[in-house]
Amino acid sequence: MKLVRFGPKGQERPGLYREDGTIIDVSAEIDDFDRAFFAGSGLAKIEHTARSAPPTAVGSDVRLGPPVNDPSKIICVGLNYAGHVKESGMATPREPVLFFKATSSICGPQDPIVIPKGSVKTDWEVELAVVIGKKANYVEEAEALDHVAGYLVHNDISERAFQLEREGQWVKGKSADSFAPIGPWLVTKDEIEDPQNLDLWLKVNGEMVQSSNTSDMVFSVRVLVSYISQFMSLLPGDIISTGTPFGVGMGFDPPRYLVPGDVVELGVEGLGEARQRVISYEESQ
Description:
Elements: E1 2-6, E2 13-17, E3 23-25, H1 35-39, H2 42-52, E4 64-65, E5 74-78, H3 82-88, E6 97-101, E7 106-107, E8 113-115, E9 122-123, E10 126-132, E11 148-155, E12 158-159, H4 160-165, E13 180-181, E14 186-188, E15 199-204, E16 207-213, H5 221-228, E17 239-241, E18 263-268, E19 272-280, H6 281-284
Parallel strand pairs: 5-17, 7-13, 8-19
Antiparallel strand pairs: 1-2, 1-4, 1-14, 2-3, 5-6, 9-12, 10-11, 10-17, 11-14, 15-16, 15-18, 18-19
């Protein structure tokens, strides 16, 4: 199944996306794709609907919201692709490098990327994101994927000066409003045969700048879910963003960063594609 939330910001309705571009509105059955939905076996509840309900025609201009609403946290993994480690000039981590991204940074896959005040180094990062389906504590690697609900596309937007040149942790360079566009939809794990063999890519103004495969990950999805669960509870609806491949703006010589007017397109094999226009903070007001 492909879970989608559609409608104006703050008024999104839950739906099931079909390959013909239509959406089944399931808002009469469930409130939202949120923590309660995943914790309460919501996926099983709507499985019958996915097979039997007639689709609801929607216009091609319908806004898609983030497929998951109000997760308790976004856990991100740094330096998790061999190619990205190399372009960063850093050593390959011996353990996953973890940081958080504020949930207030989440937006829809077509919503604009807003350059924050004072930013001069806003960067792009295509990533495979994992959505947790049931609570995970001290999970063994062999059982880790049992706790996954599905996968989605994430653009881990980063302000490199805030992240790397200011005091403190990375979170403040990762958490501005609009810095976590996710979607277009959440694809349930049964549709993804192997999360470690998915092509992913990103273009800026039509130019391919990132093109890789999840096989280049240093730590697999299975390892990450197990590892993170040793340090904190992974709750239903939580998002783990698994790192980005080579080709980020910071890695160019000279570095390249986003400016208002740029258009970012990205996708992950089997998970759909997203498109975001870059605007200034003033333009967003």
